[in-house]
Amino acid sequence: MSDFVDRVTVHVKGGDGGNGSAGVRREKYKPLAGPNGGNGGRGGSVIFVADANANSLLDYRFMPHRNAGNGTMGLGDTKDGSQGDDLILPVPIGTVVFEAKGKEGEPKRPGAQLADLRHAGDRYVVAAGGAGGLGNAALANKTRRAPGFALLGEPGEERDVILELKSIADVALVGFPSAGKSSLIAAMSAAKPKIADYPFTTLVPNLGVVKAGDMRYTIADVPGLIPGASQGKGLGLQFLRHIERTEIIAHVIDCATLEPGRDPMSDYYALENELGIYSDELELPLGAIPIPERPRVIVLNKADVPEAKELAEFMKPEFEKLDLPVYIISTASHEGLKELNFALAKLVQEMRADLVKREEQEEQERVVIKPLETPRGRMRGNEPGFTIERKQDGNGNYWFTVRGEKPERWVMQTNFDNDEAVGYLADRLNRLGVEDALRKQGARPGDEVRIGRGDREVSFDWDPTIAAGAEMLDGSQLGARGQDLRLQEEDTRARRRTNTERRRQYHEMMDARAAVRAAMMAEREAGHWADPSKDDDRHDTQAILGRGEMADDADEAGQDSDE
C-alpha cells in the first residue's frame, strides 16, 4: 500500500476565548471598592505553513482533527487570562487549501480556493481563535461604575477544509504507461520507484532530485496518462494537477512499443491533446506560465533495442521540424542520459529566472482595492449591519430572526443566567437599532426572537423594557438604560454641584441650625430642662453633685452593720 497522499480532508477548530471575570475589589471599611475583573485570554489559531521538510499529507489522513489551545479565564486584580497556543501545521510546498463542500456524513469535495502555499514559509490562518471576553473592569464607565457581570469568550472558528498537494517540480515527465518514466527517474536520481513490465505500475507521482554540476533540480512523473485522461479515464485526471507547478514538460515516448496504431508522433499529439483540454479548465496562480507556453522536450526512450533506436533516429528530424529538442536515451544502458541531464538543467535555470520576472511584473500590475475607512462601531451609509425577517410555520407560530455579525457575536458573549448581562445585551441591541427595527416589523413584547445560526442560535422572548445596571432593589427600576446606582450614594464626586446649589444648600443648613437653637431655648424657658447644679433625683446614681437617695441609704445600712 502506498504512503503517498495528495488530498485529505481536515477538520480544524480555533481555540475558544476565555471568559471575562466579574471580580470586586474590597478594601477596609469599603466592601465595594470597584470592579477589578480581568479579561479572558484569546484562543489560539490553526495555521498552515509551507515547510520544505514536509513532503506528504499522510499525517493528516490519520489525524484529521486538529484543535488549537483555548484561552484561560480572567482573574481578579485586573489580571487577564493567558492566550491559547497557536497550532502550527506544516504542509508540503505547493499545497492548496480549499473549502470543503458536501453534506454531513458524505465525502467532501473541493469548493472555493482559500490559500495557495507556493513558497517556503507561506502561512494561512485557516481557523482563527475566539476573542476573550471582557471583564467587568473593562466594562465599567462613568454611568456603569460597578458592573456585576462579564462577557463570555467567543468560540473559535470551526470548519472543514481540503488540502490538495500539487507537487512542485522543475520537470514533469509525461507519457503513456510503461514508457519508462519511472526508470528514467531511477536512472537520473536516487529515487527508487516501483518498476515492472505491466501498465499502470506507477500509481502515485514519483519525485527525484537530479544534480547537474553545481545545479540541482527536481523531476516528477505523471502516471496513467492515456487518451481521455482529462475526462477522468484511467488515472490521469487524478494526477494531471501535478503538472500545474512544473516549469518544463518532457514527453517520454516509448519507441519499442508493439501496440498497433501507436508511433512516437501519434503518442506526442495524443498527450498534447489531453494537456490542452486540461489547461483550458485550469486557473493558474499568480505569475505561473500557462501549460501551452511551457517548453517541451522530447525524450525517445529504449534506444538499447535496435529497432527502437532505428525508429528514434528516423523520427528525430520530424520533431525537430516542430522546434522541439529531441534526445535519444536508454534507461537500461544509460545512453544519452548525461546530455539530457545538462540540457534540462540549463533549461530549468532559464525558466526560474523567467518566473521571477513574471511574478515581479504581476505584483506591480496588481490593483489593490481597499474599502473606505469607516469609524469603528458605525455602518457605512444607511446600512444597519443586520437584517430582520419574520418567519412562520404551518401551525401559525411565528418568530423574528435577526442576522448580522454584531448581534450574533454579542449573543455568544452574553451569560443569560445573569440578568444584568441580559440587560447589557438589550442596551447594545437597542443602540444598534434592533429594537426599533423589530417594532417596525410588527413585533410586540413577548414575541419570540432568534439571533444566531445553527447550534449557536439563541431564542428568547422580546422584552424592550430590560435595562442594565442594579435594577431590582425594591421591585422597581432605579435607573435608565446603562446606569448603575450602587456607588452614586457613596461617592459625592459622582456629580459636580453648581454655585446656585451650593448657596441653596448653605442657606438650608443655616436655617436648620437656627431652628434647632430656637427650639432648645423654648424648651429651657418652659422648664423642660433640669438644672445640673441641683441633685433633685433620688434614684440617680450617676448624678454630678450627688449619688442619690438610694446610695445614701446604702451607706447608712453599711455603717449600722459595722457597729
Automatic annotation (TrEMBL):
PANTHER family (UniProt xref): DEVELOPMENTALLY REGULATED GTP-BINDING PROTEIN-RELATED (PTHR11702), MITOCHONDRIAL RIBOSOME-ASSOCIATED GTPASE 2 (PTHR11702:SF31)
Protein name per its UniProtKB record: GTPase Obg
One Pfam family this sequence matches: MMR_HSR1
Keyword ATP-binding: no
Function: An essential GTPase which binds GTP, GDP and possibly (p)ppGpp with moderate affinity, with high nucleotide exchange rates and a fairly low GTP hydrolysis rate. Plays a role in control of the cell cycle, stress response, ribosome biogenesis and in those bacteria that undergo differentiation, in morphogenesis control.
The species this protein was found in: Bifidobacterium gallicum DSM 20093 = LMG 11596
Cofactor(s) recorded in Swiss-Prot or TrEMBL: Mg(2+)
EC number(s) on file: 3.6.5.-
Originating gene: cgtA
Region: Disordered, residue numbers: 13-37, 524-563
Localization annotation: Cytoplasm
